[in-house]
């Protein structure tokens, strides 16, 4: 953007502000969502899915798996016993294995199978 264009944009913003067009905007005075959290590679997709209230079922399988892996600790923490945790991990690993072997809709996976024993240990530690 040239210096002349930047001055024009600044002028338009000042004029809109003087007309009161920025008053009472939704979220005014509130912190920006996600501040202080690291951005994932597909942050824009998560943001759009949240904004448009798109559930996991609407995502392509690769992105659905990615979201499930991202939310895995919360999902496991809702389970009552180790057997249920191991069963959930086995089911997730089966879907990840299938996605790694064959073609899958969406971007390529950026993760592999979950270490069941490590995940169970982490689940136990979070419960303690």
What does this structure look like?
This protein is an all-alpha fold and 128 residues long. It has helices at 3-19, 43-51, 61-70, 72-77, 82-101, 116-127. The mean pLDDT is 86.
Topology, pairings included?
Elements: H1 3-19, H2 43-51, H3 61-70, H4 72-77, H5 82-101, H6 116-127
Helix pairs in contact: 3-5, 5-6
Residue-averaged pLDDT: 86
Straight-line distance between termini: 55 Å
Major sheet: none
Strand content: under 5%
> Using DSSP, what is the number of strands?
0
Radius of gyration, in angstroms, nearest whole number: 22 Å
Helical fraction: 55-70%
Silhouette? elongated
Number of helices: 6
Brief sketch in words of this structure:
By secondary structure, this protein is an all-alpha fold.
Keywords for this entry:
single chain; 128 residues; mainly alpha; DnaJ_homolog_subfam-C_membr-28
